[in-house]
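WARN retry 2 of 3 for item q-0093 after timeout on previous attempt; input resubmitted unchanged.
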Amino acid sequence: MTLPAWLTAIKFNADGLIPAIAQDHASGRILMMAWMNAEALQLTAQTKTAVYFSRSRAKLWHKGESSGHTQTVHDIRLDCDADVIVLSVTQAGGIACHTGRESCFYQRLDLSGQTPQWQTVDKVLKDPADIYQSDKTASATDHNHDTAALNADNASNAAENHNTQTDNTSILQQLDKVLAERKQADADSSYVASLYAKGLNKILEKVGEESTESIIAAKDFAHCDENTDKAQYDEARHELIYEVADVWFHTLVGLAWFDIESDAVLNELGRRFGLSGIDEKAAR
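OK item q-0093 returned
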């Protein structure tokens, strides 16, 4: 396909992609960064709505097609090296980030102390579980932030299993069942299936990534004291719980890769119950 003249002026990288930065049309705030190929950029120009390219799934994705948080494009600019695009957009719903925040850039480097530390400075405007409602949603949403899809997988399966699971079935057992089922699913059908398709290294990478984010969240929460307002305290607490849940979930995916169910870990914890740390170490 012959590209129009305006597209040939762009320096796409070796993968045929260019980074695209979405900036709020009214405030000027940077909302997110994603990738575009020539087709995505051409569609964006034609429809005046943001269309990006998913590297993980190698396909186009229309911003907001699952969340409803579409981006109306007012202006498209190219930098001096012709290798970065800036979009001036109106963000539907005021939420661009998969975490339910206005912007993906919600962590600020605090340089006031001896050691720089990342701090979460933006509030969650809407719970991601309320934004992403189904596996179809999960597979459609991607700008290198996979946690949104994780929430969609969980939200849909919670609703799906609510009436079929007995009261005695734990959340972990339900997750074991879902994770086992996803092994046979198409990679485009859910977030978990896409992780399996990418292999063990990708799963372990996610465990490490989410662990780091939980450490950052814990550090942020540790800064809260009696002088912290309640809203900020609650937000920091929620963020820590949210990130630890991500760690647990991806660890379970890692176990499921080896066909190990969560009960094996619970049984091991049960075996240790009542033993002191020293006694437990000695018994290994």
